[in-house]
Amino acid sequence: MKLNDQDIKLVEEIHGEVSKLLNNNATDEYILMAMTENIKTLRSIMQSSKINSLDYYCEKYDGFFYFMRLLENIAGNLSKRR
Q1: Nearest to 43 by CA among 15, 75, 20, 19
Q2: Cβ neighbours of 53 (radius 10 Å)
Q3: Which of 19, 28, 40, 42 is least surrounded, with the fewest CB atoms within 10 Å of its CB?
Q4: 25-53: per-residue pLDDT in tens?
């Protein structure tokens, strides 16, 4: 499923905020704390879209990619603990 305009706007907002935080040398932990509000909305986007749609936006927006990678790493670490 292709992302709708509202979802694209969220992707762009995440990209912008994460890019700004990275430019200010924020730690991964700080980025996650600062972006907490976006995680729930992002989860619904991930569940309703196809992987290739998200891949496209990860390639287009490096800040968004960075944030997605952080979430992926956390999920991977959590699954290893089970």
Answers
A1: 75
A2: 18
A3: 40
A4: 999 999 999 999 888 888 878 877 776 78
Residue type, 18: V
Single-letter residue type at 7: D
Burial class (CB in 10 A: 0-12, 13-18, 19+), 32: middle
Could you tell me how many residues make up the chain?
82
pTM: 0.85
Nearest to 70 by CA among 25, 20, 18: 18
| Encoded tokens for 16 | 């912008």
